[in-house]
Design goal:
By secondary structure, the chain is α/β, with parallel strands linked by helices. It is built from 8 helices and 14 strands. It has one domain: Metallo-beta-lactamase, Chain A. 27% of the residues lie in helices and 26% in strands. The longest helix is centred in the middle third of the chain and has 12 residues. The radius of gyration is 17 Å and the shape is globular. It binds zinc ion (ZN) (2 copies). One zinc ion binds next to helix 2. One zinc ion binds next to loops.
Length: 252
């Protein structure tokens, strides 16, 4: 499994793009979340109109979802013909089409590639090109699904937004890498996790590595030295930045 971080920031961070990760596993690829700032970064790396097979949307807040119209516009402009599959919770199709219609009225009729929508149900496994996907609801202000991708050799968890719940803990238990939002230093904002609770998660759920994402921007800058020390003091914790890559296992 290969990961490339396109963005690691929260919604309003002007120094870091919205959280998004490009994942290649087995013979398929995923874009994990597509917020406002993501398409520009994505197309910096992707000049093939048919690249990327699947887009995962954790929830419908703009910093995770509202990059879709631009993603689709650019794929159209590049002449994409290959189907693009969207995976997420109920209403993903309706919301995606509504966002596209608002951004570019009538544009959906021009697309020359099929859009396919797959709904994932918590508690059930969805198999996509030999990968097993499972989802669970986190504790966020809007319904958000954490996602586990299992390629048979490695397990990757991506939280989207929200605090860990019993259900998301079960999903990420023993995984090789968890990408988890950590908005503040300690749990203080309802509906968001923290660096301290992520450290606890990593220990309690026997997670091999945990990458902290979606840090609240003023905390990230004001507490830079504290955060650096926190990461250095706890092996297994990572603080990725844009363009960082991680390889899990020795296969693509
Ligand atoms: Zn967010
Ligand atoms: Zn959110």
């Amino acid at each position: 499994m290969r990961l490339l971080f396109l963005g690691v920031g929260e919604a309003c961070d002007s120094r870091h793009g919205n959280c998004s990760i490009l994942v290649h596993a087995k013979n398929t690829s995923f874009l994990l979340d597509c917020g406002f700032s993501v398409p520009h970064r994505f197309f910096y790396y992707c000049d093939d109109p048919d690249c990327i097979d699947n887009v995962w949307i954790s929830h419908f807040h703009g910093d995770h979802f509202l990059g879709l119209p631009l993603l689709l516009l650019r794929f159209w402009e590049m002449g994409r013909t290959r189907p693009l599959q969207f995976i997420g919770q109920e209403n993903l199709k309706e919301k995606t089409l509504a966002a596209l219609e608002l951004a570019y009225p009538g544009f959906v009729d021009k697309l020359r590639f099929p859009m396919q929508f797959l709904t994932i149900t918590p508690g059930k496994t969805l198999t996509v090109k030999g990968l097993h996907l499972r989802a669970a609801i986190s504790g966020h202000s809007q319904q958000n699904y954490g996602l586990l991708i299992d390629d048979g050799d490695n397990r990757l968890y991506y939280s989207g937004d929200g605090r860990a719940t019993e259900a998301t803990r079960k999903l990420m238990h023993g995984c090789d890498l968890a990408l988890h939002e950590a908005f503040t230093l300690r749990d203080s904002i309802p509906g968001h996790g923290s660096m301290a609770s992520c450290l606890q998660l990593m220990d309690e759920e026997n997670i091999k590595q945990l990458a902290l994402l979606h840090l609240e921007r003023t905390t990230r800058y004001r507490e830079e030295e504290t955060i650096k020390k926190f990461i250095a003091d706890h092996p297994g914790l990572l603080l990725p930045k844009e363009d960082d890559r991680i390889v899990l296992g020795d296969t693509a």
